[in-house]
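go over both lines:
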Amino acid sequence: MDVVTKKAGERAELVGAALALTVYLTGLTLQLTGNGGPAAQALFAAAYAFGGLSALREAVGALRRGRFQVDFLMLVAAAGAAAIGRWEEGAVLLVLFSLGHALEEYAMGRARRSIEALGALAPRTALVRRAADTTAEVPVEELAVGDTVLVRPHTRVPADGFVAAGAGSVDQSPITGESVPADKTPVPDRAAALADPAGTDPGSRVYAGTVNGSGSLDVVVTRPAADNTLARVVRMVRDAEERTSSTQRFTDRFQKVFVPAVLALVAALLGYGALAGEPFTDSFYRAMAVLVAASPCALAVATPAAVLSAVGRAARGGVLVKGGAPLEEFGRLRTLAFDKTGTLTEGRPRLTDVEPADGAGREELLRTAVAAQRLSDHPLAQAVVRDAPPQPAGAPAAEAVGLRAVTGRGVTAELDGETVHIGSLSYADTLAGPPVPPALRDRTEELARTGRTTMLVRRGDRWLGTLGLMDAPRPEAAETVAALRALGVTRTVMLSGDDQRVADAVGSAVGVDEALGGLMPLDKAAEVARLRRAARTAMIGDGVNDAPAMAGATVGVALGAAGSAVALETADIALMSDDLRRLPFITGLSRRASRIIRQNLWLSLGIVAVLVPATALGLGIGPAVLVHEGSTLLVVANALRLLRHRDAV
């Protein structure tokens, strides 16, 4: 059902409820002024029609499918009141019921519209470049992979793609929840980026529905409109409403048993009244009042309203939650397992330490290392070149030649007529000439113990020093782990394929309780299974190489899923951005959603527990209806508070 149809249905229910209220009040006025009679009776009958028609359609449809719904109890009670001539009692029941139901649908529709609003973010048309200086406006549905679209300043990006020309910042908050616009630059090779869009640097990728800044961008389309990131998110959030939680499944099973049990109780009350010699109308009226009191409408809506509101709020915050089950489970978690590389760390090595040897200078060490490593395409060599400070202005650039690699150990090159050696300590010990100085050896071993990958540098017969490299922790990792602990997470574990010393160094830096290194993907899955035997456990990774561990966890969480279709499909919860601080946000939201669901359940069950004996002892239909419908509205209003959940980031 589309948005227009849903809105029309909401309006129809509100109109029906308003008409029911109007004719009921008119009939009541006539009755109170002594001018009732057939006119008032007709108005009460009209209130039946306006107030009960929608509920009757739903109840009949449910009965055809072999299901009892709580609305059925209300209709039976209203029909019973009419049968014994208490038309005004039945009318007030249906009027208040229809008003409550209409307001409930309006409130639930508000939660749904917060989700549907995501789908309206993408523009309906795009400017496609047809030639060097001409563009044509076409519907976004007609965009094909490989098309180049012009994104003008301060307009929305019409499609997923990469920047081929132009530069600027893009507000990605509608997709990733990032509060700061992301800088975008063109890809160096358009053909390579089009051949492997997933491998494109995030600094060049853009998503449909995001907002361009002040620069003009040429974007090459990599996904059709029906399959772009925004469309996937909207589709999955809609589908999430169908994935019920354990609490929702409990309430569904409860209703299937409870409704027939209530009908049996009503029959027993009627039988007891007949045996006790009570007038039939009195027994029947009391039985109808019990029917009203026992209708657990608040219970039926308690969980769906909270889940829908929380899923909608999460989506607005850049987190995709695939239904009530992972939402509730995540709200109960006390153990979180993290992948290391790319999750708690940046996923690429960085130059972290520069240690000159005695008698050598820092500038000479870096100049020599950069000159030789510039010739290599090894990731560690590229990290040295990228992270080394620039040479002083006017200093001549050093140019090495004749690079030769010693696989897995180091490299050699020629610089200004001298041989340069760069490599591990074990490689350094194989070289002829002066050995590694003891102080430099000690410092190199100390760096290795703290998780660094070390490179000793020798030029000619002089040892210049050692360089330390490390896949550095994300700047927000330690802050995130501390925030999770404050929210009630009692155990954090980091799983890594790196050496245990590296795992220990990173684990200590970010503050996890336990760091495990040397793990293959299946080993990670086994560790998650071990953790899960002790407590509910979430696995946070990238959704691809961590898939076995995520699948074995209570809840699998993918980080940076905006650029990964695999992560979107495999994870139970997907953090659309690469920002770890989304984890405390969704943890706090899911914890709050779990509390609200429990509050709603206790409230709805408590109302039924109080009202049933009260009506059996003589409480009338009118007061029972007021309490009953009031509790339903209170439950929905409580759930809607999740739409206003604050993000601390």
